[in-house]
Amino acid sequence: MVADHTKFLPDGFFGLIKLKLRNSKVDNLTDMVQVVQNSTVWGYNLAQTIYNSNSIQQVKFYKWNKLLNELFENVLQILKQYHFIISSEKPGKVEIKSAICKTKTEITLLKPNKINLFFSYNLLAHLLAKELPPEQQ
User: Fold this and answer.
1) Model confidence pTM above 0.85
2) Which residues are bridge partners to 94 per DSSP?
3) Which positions ≥6 away from 30 have C-beta within 8 Å?
């Protein structure tokens, strides 16, 4: 994605939710779900909560920080980088550019001796969602 470009199709649908929300009374999560569901005539906006109506967790959370910190190096000055070129021919390596006219710099993201662990990693630790206290609901 080109830097500084944030306008895209879903923005209009968020705008419809905002319009519906201005004219709605929302006291709880169920009310908010109804606002989202009723914000478009054809039902394009769908609300998905963490738990379904049977209190079964639908959205899973993982300890990504632990995994990513274990396997990968940090990208220095990542906010100043505009182009990331990733290739399956060079696993663990990324070419970065800070501007279109700048030269590419290849960096190694994968920590040494972690390539086999990276491809065999299949379990992420789950995080359980914390329930909100009644005063925050």
Assistant:
1) no
2) 86, 107
3) none
Give average pLDDT by consecutive 10-residue segment, the chain, 137 residues. 58 86 91 93 87 82 82 87 89 88 89 69 64 64
Task: Write the single-letter amino acid at 11.
Answer: D
What's the 3-state SS for the chain?
CCCCCCCCCHHHHHHHHHHHHHCCCCCCHHHHHHHHHCCCCCCCCCCCCCECCCCCECCCEECHHHHHHHHECCCCCHHHCCEEEECCCCCCEEEEECCCCCCCEEEECECCCCHHHHHHCCCCCEECCCCCCHHHC
Do strands 61-62 and 83-86 pair parallel, antiparallel, or not at all (unpaired)?
A: unpaired
